[in-house]
Amino acid sequence: MRYFIELSYKGTDFHGWQIQLNATSIQECVQDGLTILLNKKTEIVGAGRTDTGVHARQIFAHFDTDAQLNPGEFTYKLNAIIPKSISILKIHKVSNNVHARFNALSRSYEYHIHLINDPFLLDTTWQIPRRKFDVDKMNKAAQILLKHTNFKAFSKSRTDVKTYDCTISKAIWVQKENKLIFYITANRFLRNMVRAIVGTLLEVGENKLSIEGFEKIILSKNRSDAGVSVPARGLFITAVKYSMFIK
Fold first, then answer.
1. Which residue in 32, 51, 123, 134 is the catalytic one?
2. What domains are there in the chain, each with its CATH number?
3. Would you call 51 a catalytic residue per the annotation?
């Protein structure tokens, strides 16, 4: 039987999603918990892989087991033995052919910037005081993303992917007093893509790059033409959508 785990986590204490040697990952912690409860080595497959320091408000993973689980009771038990910076929100029973990664219709991210120093938000925002941005100009540039599908210019170099094509359905900046948030939704994302897009759009907002120049970077398909990748701590994956059970 296959189950989906819906979870959230604060990524500060982890070296990303994926299991790796000599470093603690979200995948490792959840798998260890499942293995203890099911008394059998159990692996999970995630909807995506977040980098070191990136957070999740909602992400999914699936696992297979012969056991018939009570989702509510099992959720409580799993939360009791995994680190408190990971929260199992819900467990869903799904069909055996449903895949957490390949059946995802879209993924949404937010990037949080704080324009003043706030010690209580150090782990979850990029704090850059005394910098001003033209948000209207950044939004005009962001809309250009919806016209294109090849985002190699914003992909981490030497990444092993078959295609650089992504369909972006939403890209918008919203400023709320001293907080600047970038919202983006697409069917898939490349490694480092959101952080590179944010870094390049900030150059537009500081008048270091024109809107036309931003589109030329996309067309160039050259990562070295784009802006720097902003720090991981301000990035959140906020939603993963599926057709079968998630509204």
1. 51
2. 2-102 (3.30.70.580), 106-240 (3.30.70.660)
3. yes
